[in-house]
Amino acid sequence: ADSTASAAIVEHTFNVQNLTLTRLCNRQVITAVNDSFPGPRIRVREGDTLIVHVFNKSPYNLTIHWHGIFQILSSWADGPKMVTQCPIRPRNKYTYKFKIIKQEGTLWWHAHASALRATVYGALIILPRTGNSYPFPKPYREVPILLGEWWNANIVDIQNEALALGRGPNISDACTINGWPGDLFPCCINQMYKLKVERGKTYLLRIINAALDNQLFYKIANHNMTVVAVDACYTNRYVTDVVAIASGQTVDVLLTADQPIGSYYMAARAYASALGIQFDTTTTRGVIVYDGAPPSTTPLMPVLPAFNDTPTAHKFYSNLTSLVGGPHWGPVPVKVDHKMFVTIGLALQVCPSNTTCQGPFNGTKLSAAMNNQSFVSPTGLSMLQAFFFNVGGVYTTDFPTKPPVQFDYTNASINSNLPLLFAPKGTKTTKLKFNSTVEMVLQNTAIVGVENHPMHLHGFDFHVMAQGFGNYNPDTDASKFNLFDPQMRNTIAVPVGGWSVIRFVANNPGVWFMHCHFDAHLPIGLATAFVVENGPTPATTLPPPPADLPQC
Ligand code: C2O
């Protein structure tokens, strides 16, 4: 059959503007799309072209990112501010246009400028082409579950204040399910997400972690879930009673309403693997109500893992495997052209003497780095424009392939003497030949804090070869690589005090951001970028920017 015949053009308009909402006994003005929170749900089929006209009626500089979309030859539509575009200024517009090729499942979109993604986000669901089906039984209904965070304050102000003082931002006032905190929070008895189900039916929950700075555990009382996809990549079916989901990730599960007629809470709480820093202990919940359940029933509550239950998180994160031979499965790259060993973690900066600093130590500001390089966005011209128009001085291509010194990365007790404590700033990238293969060892450090960083790569899915705790050892750990059915993702939660190894093929020209998906770590430098050169043919060459690309 001619499958391209079914491809459609799906068009949306995003009006981004102020919206006043009441949550947690408090009226708050937020930035939202089309007066909805979470924002509009986009549904496309694989092969479709998506066109979104974004009108910035907000007071802030704005961009929108389509998290997980490959953007094949459409890097101009990827969205990270100053990486692929200058921001859409207030009272300006930009049209994002791209084709969705060879991926299906659950992704999402969010603002990619300042901290606006706290409230500017929504689901992006990619269905199989007409005539194609899921590699699992067709669910009775599909239900997006967007996990987020809520602040009783203006989030952009909160982030600016934290950056000015050189400390981390205040933690959120609540986590949310589809925008609702749930009845454990004050004034929220009726601010709870409710899902009605029919006994015996199977539902596809498309779970998205849109939280700014939290990894989460998600659980439903008395029900197992069967994972069928993560980050829009099909997995072998994996039955679990708890989902661990890092900021940026998605997990698709089948849920069968196979319990006695009644009501059951779904709940989420932070998996805060960081040691010695403030963490969020609150629980958001929603309720699943079976058709026919008496209105008076008290729902059953699931027992969530403890906030620091790393074994449970690691079991979930490491037991998933790809569905080999599934519709968009890609073979594991065997030959590696670029080997990189990259430390990721917090760092420090010295405060200018005339400022009030509230960094972790006297006279310091919080910073973050990859291989001791703290990423700074350019001003004036985006990196992608610099790439396309061959303009020098915007970025350099000397991102190091290893840290400047080797030491015990996971031992926090020697922090004060660490050579990586103060990281220089720069806009360092790695230049890659078209179609070359990259292997990255991502090694968490224990500098300043011990954390589990969710690392997100734009433009590509990567294979997760192996993950572990402690320092990565090339002599022994390479033998643990899964060369057969490793999970594919666009965001990896690198284990706390540990490492992950990923591989990807740089088969798409453009500039591709890679960063920690904790919003608190992005503006302080936990980022780098890949510059992928054009291929040999017009069909592998980045076309010129659209005429309405915002200028700085
Ligand atoms: Cu979901 Cu660069 O982000």
Offer a concise description of the structure:
This protein is mainly β and 552 residues long.
Summary tags:
3 domains, mainly beta, Immunoglobulin-like, 552 residues, binds CU-O-CU linkage, 32 strands, 6-stranded mixed beta sheet, EC 1.10.3.2
Strand order of the largest sheet: 10-9-12-17-14-15
- How much helix is in the residues? under 10%
Number of domains: 3
Note poorly predicted spans: none
Specify the biggest β-sheet. Answer: 6 strands, mixed
Number of helices: 4
What is the 3D form?
globular
CATH homologous superfamily caption of the largest domain? Cupredoxins -  blue copper proteins
Radius of gyration: 22 Å
Distance between the termini: 46 Å
List the bound ligands: CU-O-CU linkage
Strand content: 35-45%
Topology, number of strands? 32
Class based on secondary structure composition and strand pairing? mainly beta
> What is the typical, i.e. mean, pLDDT?
94
Structure description:
This protein is mainly β. It has three domains: 1-132, Sandwich (Immunoglobulin-like), CATH 2.60.40; 135-324, Cupredoxins -  blue copper proteins (Immunoglobulin-like, Sandwich); 338-540, Cupredoxins -  blue copper proteins (Immunoglobulin-like, Sandwich), CATH 2.60.40.420. It is 6% helix and 38% strand. The chain has four helices and 32 strands. The strands form seven sheets. Strands 10-9-12-17-14-15 form a six-stranded mixed beta sheet, with no helix packed on it. A six-stranded mixed beta sheet has the order 21-20-25-30-27-28, with no helix packed on it. The protein has a five-stranded mixed beta sheet with strand order 11-19-18-13-16. The chain is globular, with a radius of gyration of 22 Å. The chain binds CU-O-CU linkage. The site of CU-O-CU linkage has 11 residues, from strand 5 and strand 31.
